[in-house]
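Components:
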Amino acid sequence: MQEKITIVGGGLSGSLLAIYMAKRGFEVSLFERRPDMRKNKIYAGKSINLALSTRGLNALSKIGLDTEILNDAIPMAGRMMHSVKGDLTYQPYGKEGQAINSVSRGRLNTKLVELADEYPNITIYFNAKCVDVDLTKNLCVFEMEDGSKKEVWSDRIIGTDGAFAATRGKMQMGDRFNYSQNYLHVGYKELVIPAGPNAEFLMEKGALHIWPRGSYMMIALPNPAGDFTCTLFMPFEGEYGFANLDTKEKVVEFFNTNFPDAVALMPTLTEDFFTNPTSSLVTVKCYPWVKEDKLALMGDAAHAIVPFYGQGMNCSFEDVVVFDECVEKYFPNWTKVFDEYQKLRKPNADAIADLAVQNYYEMADKVGDKEFLHKKHIEHDLSDLYPEKYKSQYELTTFSLSSYSYALNQGKKNEALIDRIIADKAEDKIKDAAYMDTLWHLLA
Amino acid sequence: MQEKITIVGGGLSGSLLAIYMAKRGFEVSLFERRPDMRKNKIYAGKSINLALSTRGLNALSKIGLDTEILNDAIPMAGRMMHSVKGDLTYQPYGKEGQAINSVSRGRLNTKLVELADEYPNITIYFNAKCVDVDLTKNLCVFEMEDGSKKEVWSDRIIGTDGAFAATRGKMQMGDRFNYSQNYLHVGYKELVIPAGPNAEFLMEKGALHIWPRGSYMMIALPNPAGDFTCTLFMPFEGEYGFANLDTKEKVVEFFNTNFPDAVALMPTLTEDFFTNPTSSLVTVKCYPWVKEDKLALMGDAAHAIVPFYGQGMNCSFEDVVVFDECVEKYFPNWTKVFDEYQKLRKPNADAIADLAVQNYYEMADKVGDKEFLHKKHIEHDLSDLYPEKYKSQYELTTFSLSSYSYALNQGKKNEALIDRIIADKAEDKIKDAAYMDTLWHLLA
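Structure:
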């Protein structure tokens, strides 16, 4: 008989993992707390759209879903910065042809669940809330839609139940479990720029829009129907804080002053502002991620990160790929599978968590800064002139399968190199191979 | 009518706080999970003895307990390092007359509870376990010895219920509560060197003994009855790890090889080793420490630290002093009392947490190192020659009321100064005021 795997959480990571494990022939049960997203058009919780890039596409390609998902996606080849006066500045994310892809979380999750449902060895349960995990008996207990309790025995349990995972709670109660949750001082609220008369985009379609304002910012991502999902990121407290925007008049004045070009496109601004929740942003780190050969955590359950590098889903999908590779290498030694998986992924999850927090400050503050744009200009020239030698942190993170740790370290080295060029006042010598030869050691 | 204060946890911080609050005239209820330590000689949990120093003594002096406690304490003026061959090296902690004091946790707690019991406005409940806190109704719920539930209403609730505080659990469930628990890779086990024939000390009485062995160490603190409490600190796993010491033969061989001078004084070594638990060491950080004007966390409940700087109790006692000063300044504005308290204490709790982890590596590894001892020698000379200008990190932390943050920062500056003297090969110029005048800016 095939080994049984219980996956707790049918979001993006859980449904992708179910497919990977089914392809290996395991008997998979997938439990999701929420109702079936195929029957419920309104997708509750979490952000509406996501930026799918190389790592995520790599994971989808292995189950043949990449092309179909890209068909519904909108490529964003760069950032479009909006100044207070409405001036636009465009900065490409990578080279010609490189782009991140705006996809709908709900649609992607639905596609994954539909594909999972085609496998005879996957059983999906919705409205099933994990209320206990008993590792001595390999049991998961779920509260089902009718209020009954369902006890499920399996060989392995994998927790993909998100930042506030019930499965992780079980590990937290044990001794020597390292854990941290750190909230950003900034929260977020989703707003909307609707499509124009003929479902037309009222701003540039192929870019991620940013209104950087130092201590706060707004961003907008395009959706296939012609609308943009806007997100205001802002401190909870303080002069420019959500707590201060407590009347319609204040909201209108604040937007008119700070985002005048956007506010003209936001007819439902004040309604949305007071209807939509203000949500918090948390980084969760923990270790170990596994308990013997019984339980493993994956995705946000192991490493929730803030959204500013657009890597949350991409990182979680890469978890699945790496885990699957460990199964390929070490099965049926599950202790080894679990241990190798956590050792390979933990440093990378830590790296992207730190990169994501850093990127908030870059997006909100630095992208409007002259010195920063000058550095980005030098970086762009280096990438163009020496594509094999110079890879930007953004490129390594977003458009490569190099590890996040490598991207983090290489980014620091890149910064030292560019600082040196600026200190040498050698911007015009970048094309000079002899000059550059004296500097490449900084990247080693 | 006087305001009611409920204190959850009757350990060292809770019982001290009860007295401070009673002196201000509040009606105090103190709830302790364990039985009355005055009736139970065996004191369960936590380490047996503690190092009381300036901050702790300052807190005790304000309630007139310092002299009485010092009468039962054993001053330790320095560290006594034991090499594998049994060679001894002595290093004073501070100046002539400065010492840390070995005190019994049980005796100190008993004295505090006895003093608390003398106040008519303090009521103490033992065997009362906090099972819920309802902040909307200002209620604490306790499970009493007979299994009944007791609901207690009060104006303020203060959680002094330790590293795994039930009161903190309530705050953790809310949004935007930053929290981390980090376990050291090292655990500990308590052992004993009994007194000699006439209750005599079999090693130097006035020192904290250390057997530094790099990746592990043993320490010993003197007790008034002539015995020493030994603690072995060692990784859980690995070649030199607790997991490896799983037979009497291995334990005996390990001690004979690594602590031969101590093992000769430890007749019950193997029994103690397999009877006493191996415990873990955790650093807990969190924020905020308060919820409006209703609940405040104090002591280990707010900031559990590892024991290597001997400051856990001293830091918690200083919390009480600072909180009391906030009450004096801002009462009856409790929102302000709570907020000022957390703002004043949080950076210092973080600083001593980091200093305590650093000190593990210093004690286990560096104290046996020639370069380290050379630096300590220079430091000692600087302290002697320039007592007003040069204060060591240890002195600032242990023998002063300067903030822990200041001690942490000043320690880094001291290190830079000493590194510079060594780089200049100027050890013999320390007495040269002109040379030193060129360096003092490093401490600014």
